[in-house]
Amino acid sequence: MSKFIQLNKRTGTTNSQLNQARKQGRIPAVLYGMGKDTLTLEVNEKEMLDVLKKNPRAILQGKLSDDKEMPVVIQNIQRDALSGKLLHIDFHHVNMTKIMDSKVNVHFAGEAIGLKSGGVLQVELYEVEVRCMPDVLPSSMEVDISNLDVGDQLLVSDLIFQDGIEVLTDPGSVMIQIKTVHDETAEEPATVTTA
């Protein structure tokens, strides 16, 4: 549990009330997975942006208005297509005694040696899907890529997770590779001129 997040009971239900709440920094939200009832809530925009910046996949300790606390994860985020501002958040209650599927962000550290000899870094995947108990879910994973040379690649199967974590993403998927830069003019067929 990396962070507390206050989950307040939502006061408005109409579109105008929800838009007014957003202007005041209160983002509409819902919480699923608490039995049959879905709770309609709102969260503080600054607090939510802080969580999303640090670790959007973290298991959070949600605190309800009645001081009840429960582990939750962010299931879905709706943003305005133009401004990128938060419009709505879906949370899901996490049962800490059951295996769950989630995604883990992968951060690439170091500068690949292949870049110094003219290679180009191409990232294919920034996250992998895993299955594990909630208490062993890593918040993120850092991978050192400094030994990658031109023509090298890092596969999902190269990632080393602790015991109890099953990787669901295809192990043969390329995460990152160092490609050579081809001179496009050299690849063009030569034209023959006749006098």
In short:
By secondary structure, the chain is mainly β.
Which helices and strands appear, and what pairs or packs with what?
Blueprint: E1 4-9, H1 15-23, E2 26-34, E3 37-44, H2 45-54, E4 60-64, E5 69-79, E6 86-93, E7 100-109, H3 113-116, E8 120-123, E9 127-132, E10 140-144, E11 153-155, E12 166-167, E13 174-179, H4 184-187
Parallel strand pairs: 1-4, 2-6, 7-10
Antiparallel strand pairs: 1-3, 2-3, 4-5, 5-6, 7-9, 8-13, 9-12, 11-13
Model description:
The protein has two domains: 4-93, Ribosomal Protein L25, Chain P (Beta Barrel); 100-184, Beta Complex (RNA Polymerase Alpha Subunit, Chain A, domain 2), CATH 2.170.120. It is mainly beta. The protein is elongated. Mean pLDDT is 87; it is low at 183-187. The chain has four helices and 13 strands. Strand 2 (26-34) and strand 3 form a beta hairpin.
